[in-house]
Automatic annotation (TrEMBL):
Gene3D superfamilies referenced in this protein's UniProt entry, alphabetically: FAD/NAD(P)-binding domain
Protein name: Putrescine oxidase
Organism: Subtercola lobariae
Any one GO molecular-function label of the UniProt entry: oxidoreductase activity
Lineage, top ranks: Bacteria, Bacillati, Actinomycetota, Actinomycetes, Micrococcales
Keyword terms: Oxidoreductase
Family indicated by similarity: Belongs to the flavin monoamine oxidase family.
């Protein structure tokens, strides 16, 4: 077994972990990043499938993601706008495709009116919700004990309007059925993007992409680490820490031992930068406090299939379509033009989430593909049935993710455990985009959390060093200790 000593061990080489590691290294601390996968990036992954570059994981950049935009500029990465010229397509309960422009789907006057009214109601509630502390919302307990579905049924008598409002949170973001999470969790999702209206506006929330792929962010961050400070294919098996470190300022002199199959690292601090559903893949000695263990049992990731279909040409553009398409009644609930920068081929990307994903995963692969392409053809016509490259991103089957896009709480969990998830456990800190306020479940949020964890960790290390110098009778800020 190779043995290392570092100030900080960072577990996870996604955007959060690498941001924290780079910042700590810049502050003068020694770090090592341990990654279970054989690659950098976590839930960001840009790869070639049958010669075609696909964003298998996260990909979009929106104007409110100011920290991500700042990071892209620092790393010298350029962006380009998502193609959006032409009409969008909506398929309602009648199964007929309808073309439209703007944000509100074409429907009868009452349904449209109800959609617009409910957007206004949710925007008002979101303005009362701090994404950094949603449990302090004036009606937090009430809103956390009713499902988003049940609340919508109380507020609106139009089933199609309810289905469309739910689509923006349940299908498109949390990737869970609307009956399985609370109204408060829905408000947090919208507050993290600035408003519910932003989630409705595809031209805002899915504004730009990075030329060459968003995975370049973690890849370029990794390049800034010193040689040997990033170790791939090193799943952490065990963290040995001391319960004495639970007391405030009681971490002086404590050493944490982090063990993989090939390494033993002794460190003063550990940052666990993986999704919450993976925390229990690590053995903690001793166990984490009981409430932390309970917390983990009330968070889970959703389920989504990201479908990529590439064609010789972007045929929908010739037909006057932007390729933006929505339907709460279709297998593919939303789809977009996802053509890469500078390519002559055209690519569509579509999404199948929660219970619809359950259903298609029961099908044999060829039947599933046929059903998905038929759904795309409902929006774009029969040409969508014949892609030259087809691929399904299945993150639920990925060992070190097991779902998408982010962890969310069950009913009552956000008020019960939300604040606790942000607290350190002695020398251990936990964080990822799943725990972000602004930019929740996005790369922007991952970077924000990484910066916060680095700052908190650096602060405790500085206080520990000062305490140790004081204990040895050295000068501390001009005073003889």
């Amino acid at each position: 077994m190779e043995r290392l000593e570092r100030d900080v061990v960072v577990i996870g080489a996604g955007a959060t972990g690498l941001t924290a590691a780079v910042r700590l290294q810049q502050a003068g601390h020694s770090v090592v990043v341990l990654e279970a996968r054989d690659r950098v990036g976590g839930r960001l992954w840009s790869d070639h499938i049958d010669g075609q570059l696909y964003e298998i994981g996260g990909q979009w950049v929106s104007p409110d993601q100011t920290v991500l935009l700042e990071t892209l500029d620092e790393l010298g990465l350029d962006t380009y706008a998502r193609y959006r010229e032409g009409e969008s397509v909506y398929i309602g309960a009648d199964g007929a495709p309808k073309r439209f422009t703007g944000d509100i789907f074409p429907a009868n006057e009452h349904t449209r009116s109800e959609i617009e009214r409910m957007i206004g109601v949710l925007d008002e509630l979101v303005q009362q919700t701090d994404p950094a502390a949603p449990w302090e919302q004036p009606r937090a307990a009430e809103f956390d004990h009713i499902s988003f579905k049940a609340w919508l049924e109380q507020q609106c008598d139009d089933a199609e309007a309810r289905a469309n409002i739910a689509l923006f949170i349940a299908d498109a973001m949390l990737t869970k059925p609307a009956h399985s999470f609370s109204l408060l969790q829905a408000l947090l999702m919208a507050a993290s993007a600035g408003s519910f209206s932003h989630l409705v506006d595809a031209d805002f929330i899915l504004d730009k992409r990075v030329i060459g792929g968003l995975q370049q962010v973690p890849l370029k961050l990794a390049e800034q680490l010193r040689a040997g400070d990033l170790r791939l294919s090193q799943p952490v098996r065990r963290i040995k820490w001391s319960t004495a470190a639970l007391a405030a300022d009681a971490v002086d002199g404590e050493v944490v031992e982090v063990v993989t199959d090939e390494l033993v690292v002794n460190a003063r601090r550990v940052i666990v930068a993986v999704p919450p559903n993976l925390y229990n893949r690590i053995e903690y000695a001793p166990n984490l406090p009981r409430l932390r263990q309970q917390l983990q049992q009330h968070q889970s990731l959703g389920l989504v299939i990201k479908v990529h279909a590439t064609y010789e040409t972007a045929f929908w553009r010739e037909d006057g379509l932007s390729a933006t398409a929505f339907s709460p009644y279709q297998i593919v609930h939303e789809a977009y033009d996802n053509t890469n920068y500078g390519e002559s081929r055209g690519t569509l990307v579509g999404f199948i989430s929660d219970e619809k994903a359950d259903a298609v995963f029961q099908m044999p692969a060829e039947e599933r593909k046929r059903s998905i392409l038929n759904s795309l053809a409902s929006y774009y016509g029969p040409q969508a049935l014949e892609p030259v490259v087809y691929y399904e991103s299945d993150w639920a089957a990925e060992e070190w993710t097991q779902g998408a896009y982010a962890a969310s709480f069950d009913l009552g969990g956000l008020t019960r455990y939300g604040a606790l998830q942000l607290e350190p456990v002695g020398p251990l800190r936990f964080g990822s985009s799943d725990l972000a306020a602004e930019g929740y479940q996005h790369v922007d949020g991952a970077i924000r959390v990484g910066r916060r964890l680095a700052a908190e960790t650096a602060d405790t290390l500085a206080r520990q060093s000062m305490s140790e110098r004081s204990a040895h009778g050295t000068f501390v800020e001009g005073v003889i200790a």
